[in-house]
């Protein structure tokens, strides 16, 4: 069985704009809780929950930017579960003396169902702000009957430490209504195991209880969740939204296009082998009705084992086909196909294996062997690279090539419009690099679900495109790049180190859209080894307003201890603090023989505090 992720579908036959049904803003959020693959905008998540009758808001709208009390959290959870009417009717007893009358039925229901124990023998803590951990534990008890919110998929340790401000001054929580909405939205896709012979999602549980219908869930949820497709034993497809099935295809014996992320088309491609031919179909995302596009004989196209959608330009869909003889690039207008190229492989090392292409200034760039295809709404142009020349990436209308024809090697900026060279930089040949298998240059994908990268980086430095020219931002070797979503446009965070040694790592923050062509930038050193923090930084992970970095220490047998850190900069005092977020043991049977994970985190935090990196 395979799962096919396509997040765009029409809800009904009515005319609805395609982009109105794409789970938009997949990378944006007004909460601090980010879930991969869904729309993370809390306002739109709240609209979905409201449409299902699970979230009502306040007299001031959704009021997402304020904290909520434990009493309010009780109402929110009971309402989400569709148990509000029952809770009000039963008005179950509880031992707590600090619960207001309006919240008592909800707290009583939670207590009777072993979802809350309060904060003391006779106290529920009604007026206290609910914390991330409190909220996550209650949801975990609902889904798996355990407090382990990490195993249940409700939350993460990193989120808890950051939002509940562990080891920070002042103490307290930054858990807001927006975060609660985002956690409930994530919870909908968590697995429900309690009182079930077979696991189902929480969405399926609520459907089973009659809280909403499949039609209501699909109508409300399409802007937030991706549609997935599972294949039955007969080769048919079933469309699901977070486990809730709502359509089955009539066509059987088919294979599907598993391309991701979401795209703005109301259909996807499937294919079926019939004797010595392969039949390509377009299938409607929601109705799963299929129309034949073309029929290839084995002479025209070797038997495919995968077909992926790349993009739509000029009314044509561009597809990549993997088969026994290599790959093919084809276009389709829905009625026929045209084979543009056939070769051994697609040459772009992109965000995901099935996406070997780059978007740059509304141009689709695809390479097949040593040929670069530049595709626009108007035409398809190809350029054959000379021997020794490698396509690195493209940004803001400029291709970046690495040439080993000369010594030292050269990095060139080439206009995609007319293939003319704009700039040339000399760099040491790859074989002379002291960094082993680290790439001399690679494309950085700043927008995971967007149509483009965000610069070129590697041991040769960091490059960007400004005003149509290739500019070298720094010659310092660059290990990693992340995106920090701060201010109106955000900033890029760069992990670098001293030339000649991978140690002594530094994190730099570049203000503004450094890699999108804006003139000028400010370089701010955020973290360095003066005084030494003793951390060999291994990688950066960016998530919305948070950027983490990690260290990795070998403990034998190809196992590594990994600490994750969060840098905190106090602009008023110009002080850089470091919060130790988590510890993962490479050999837990040794590391955890006497101490638990929290002990290692506290020990490392104390060490950093002593060096002046207290948050």
Multimeric state of these chains?
single chain
Judging from the principal axes of the Cα atoms, what is the shape?
globular
Distance between the termini: 48 Å
Report strand %: 25-35%
- Provide a count of the helices: 11
Name the helicity range.
Answer: 10-25%
Q: What value does the average pLDDT take?
A: 81
Residue windows where pLDDT falls under 50 for at least 5 positions:
1-22, 24-28, 431-438, 444-453, 485-489, 510-522
Give, in spatial order, the strands making up the sheet with the most strands: 1-4-5-6
Radius of gyration (CA) equals 27 Å
Tell me the total number of β-strands.
Answer: 34
Structural class: alpha+beta
User: Tell me about the biggest sheet?
Assistant: 4 strands, antiparallel
Describe this structure in words.
There is one protein chain. With 615 residues, the chain is α+β, with helices and mostly antiparallel strands. It has a domain at 11-216. The chain contains 11 helices and 34 strands. The strands form 9 sheets. It has a 4-stranded antiparallel beta sheet. Strand 9 (277-284) and strand 10 (290-297) form a beta hairpin. Helix 1 packs across helix 7, helix 2 crosses helix 4 and helix 3 crosses helix 4 (104-112). The radius of gyration is 27 Å and the shape is globular. The two termini are 48 Å apart.
């Amino acid at each position: 069985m395979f799962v096919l992720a396509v997040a765009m579908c029409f809800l009904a036959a009515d005319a609805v704009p395609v982009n109105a049904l794409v789970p938009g803003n997949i990378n944006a959020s007004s909460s601090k809780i980010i879930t991969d693959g869904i729309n993370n905008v809390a306002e739109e998540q709240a609209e979905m929950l409201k449409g299902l009758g699970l979230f009502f808001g306040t007299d001031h709208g959704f009021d997402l930017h304020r904290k909520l009390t434990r009493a309010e959290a009780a109402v929110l959870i009971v309402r989400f579960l569709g148990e509000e009417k029952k809770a009000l009717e039963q008005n179950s007893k509880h031992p707590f003396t600090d619960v207001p009358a309006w919240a008592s039925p909800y707290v009583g229901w939670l207590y009777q169902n072993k979802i809350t124990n309060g904060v003391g023998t006779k106290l529920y803590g009604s007026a206290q702000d609910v914390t991330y951990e409190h909220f996550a534990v209650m949801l975990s008890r609902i889904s798996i009957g355990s407090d382990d919110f990490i195993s249940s998929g409700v939350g993460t340790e990193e989120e808890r430490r950051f939002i509940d401000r562990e080891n920070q001054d002042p103490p307290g929580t930054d858990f807001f209504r927006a975060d609660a909405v985002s956690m409930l939205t994530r919870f909908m896709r968590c697995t429900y195991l309690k009182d079930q012979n077979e696991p189902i999602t929480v969405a399926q549980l609520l459907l089973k209880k009659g809280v909403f219908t499949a039609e209501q869930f699909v109508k409300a949820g399409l802007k937030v969740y991706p549609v997935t497709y599972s294949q039955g034993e007969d080769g048919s497809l079933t469309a699901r939204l977070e486990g809730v099935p709502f359509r089955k295809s009539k066509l059987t014996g088919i294979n599907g296009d598993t391309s991701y992320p979401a795209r703005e088309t109301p259909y996807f491609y499937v294919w079926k082998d019939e004797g010595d031919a392969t039949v390509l179909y377009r299938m409607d995302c929601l109705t799963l009705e299929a129309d034949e596009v073309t029929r290839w004989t084995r002479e025209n196209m070797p038997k495919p084992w995968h077909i992926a959608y790349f993009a739509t330009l000029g009314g044509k869909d561009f597809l990549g086909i993997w088969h026994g003889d290599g790959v093919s690039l084809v276009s389709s207008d829905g009625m026929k196909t045209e084979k543009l190229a056939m070769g051994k492989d697609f040459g772009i090392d992109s965000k995901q294996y099935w996406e070997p292409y780059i978007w740059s200034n509304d141009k689709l760039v695809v390479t097949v062997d040593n040929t670069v295809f530049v595709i626009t709404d108007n035409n398809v142009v190809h350029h054959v690279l000379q021997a020794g020349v490698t396509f690195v990436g493209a940004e803001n209308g400029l291709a970046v090539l690495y040439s080993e024809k000369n010594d030292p090697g050269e990095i060139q900026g080439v206009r995609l419009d007319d293939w003319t060279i704009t700039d040339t930089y000399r760099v040491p040949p790859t074989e002379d690099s002291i960094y082993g298998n680290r790439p001399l240059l690679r494309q950085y994908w700043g927008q995971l679900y967007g149509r483009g990268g965000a610069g070129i980086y590697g041991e040769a430095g960091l490059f960007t495109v400004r005003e149509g020219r290739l500019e070298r931002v720094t010659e310092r070797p660059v290990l990693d790049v992340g995106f920090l979503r701060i201010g109106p446009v955000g900033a890029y965070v760069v992990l670098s180190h001293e030339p000649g040694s991978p140690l002594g790592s530094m994190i730099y923050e570049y203000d503004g859209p450094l890699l999108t062509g804006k003139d000028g930038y400010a370089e701010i050193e955020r973290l360095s080894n003066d005084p030494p923090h003793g951390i060999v930084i291994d990688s950066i992970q960016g998530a919305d307003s948070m950027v983490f970095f990690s260290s990795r220490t070998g403990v034998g047998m190809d196992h590594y201890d990994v600490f994750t850190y969060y840098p905190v900069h106090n602009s008023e005092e110009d002080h850089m603090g470091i919060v130790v977020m988590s510890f993962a043991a490479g050999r837990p049977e040794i590391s955890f023989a006497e101490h638990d994970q929290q002990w290692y985190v506290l020990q490392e935090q104390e060490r950093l505090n002593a060096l002046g990196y207290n948050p």
